[in-house]
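Quick log. Single chain, no ligands specified.
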Amino acid sequence: MAVPTPLPPSLRRGLVAFSGSLFINNKTWDSGTAPSSQPAHKVLSSLPLQVMLYFNVYYFPVWCLAEGIMLHLKYHLLPWHYQFLLVTAFLILSLAEGPRLYLGYLGNLQEKVPELAGFLLLSFLIQLPLLLFLLSDRQVIHLPLEVPLHSFFLAFLLLEIVAAFLVLRTMTKQLAAQFYLRQFQEGGRARLEPGGTGGQAAGMG
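-> predicted structure:
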């Protein structure tokens, strides 16, 4: 049973257009003459991406709890502006991770391009910069457990970005191929109809 998507229609159309402009090259094989027969459906979901998402779902509560405790322990040792930055980064990471994982599950398992594109954008534009800030900023007081915790999270994130990029590229090319095939088949049916261009040319001859 299909899971309802959380994305509004206008955002879905925008993500589809973004994915198409990023991955589809009209000079590649999928823009030429389409085959005359309907190909069998090929499973495009990525097993490595799904495995990483599965373990990430269980790892994130551990990271969230441990980071919350360590932030509480070192909060009074930080300057006021770093107190604000760290709390803000922690809240954004925590609030964005649930929707990010949901979009990843939905986009990968049901082969939905907009949801997978949303997952990729959330990972690359929000989670990755914030996590790099927590790991690399020298003014942040790193407790002994923080570096391995952030490093594991960063490893999950980078591997998921690469896997999602590859599967999204495959999905968009497959959608383009299906679109060109439908256009080819509809054009062939129109030529074969009595009132079509082919029928008119035969009648004039």
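The helical segments are 9-23, 47-74, 80-109, 113-136, 146-192, 197-204.
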